[in-house]
Amino acid sequence: QEQLVESGGGLVQAGGSLRLSCASSGGTFSTYTVAWFRQAPGKDREFVAGIIWAYITTYYSDSVKGRFTISRDTAQNTVHLQMNSLTPDDTAVYYCAARPVFTESISTAEYWYAFWGQGTQVTVSS
């Protein structure tokens, strides 16, 4: 069973930055599509950003486009989510999700992803 481990969450002031990381217990993301979702209190979980590891194709939700950057680190086999210009609306539990499949587009649907991390809390204070 694949396990994803997120790290890097925490408390930051509005306007600040955080970098989240997602690592795989299986050792490689080379054939994976990896995404970040988030869930704020009282709200549904929503897609944030995704990357097709093999093609380095990325996709972002409108709410984070221009502020967040998803990237891969091939040396550490890790996916990062660099979050800049954070606002209190970005406060949520952030989840890493992955599916071992080559695809030409990045799904924003939760059900499409086979493996999930436990989540990491991001809190942005005003």
Uncertain spans: none
Q: How large, in whole angstroms, is the Cα Rg? A: 13 Å
Strand content: over 45%
> Biggest sheet: strands, sense, closure?
7 strands, mixed
- The secondary-structure class comes to mainly beta
Percentage of residues assigned to helices: under 10%
Spatial shape: globular
Give the number of helices. Answer: 0
Task: Outline the structure in words.
0% of the residues lie in helices and 48% in strands. With 126 residues, the protein is mostly beta strands. Strand 5 and strand 6 form a beta hairpin. It is globular and about 40 Å long. The mean pLDDT is 94.
Could you list some keywords that capture this structure?
126 residues, mainly beta, seven-stranded mixed beta sheet, globular
Task: Map the helices and strands.
Blueprint: E1 4-7, E2 10-13, E3 18-24, E4 33-39, E5 46-52, E6 57-60, E7 68-73, E8 78-83, E9 92-99, E10 115-116, E11 120-125
Parallel strand pairs: 2-11
Antiparallel strand pairs: 1-3, 3-8, 4-5, 4-9, 5-6, 7-8, 9-10, 9-11
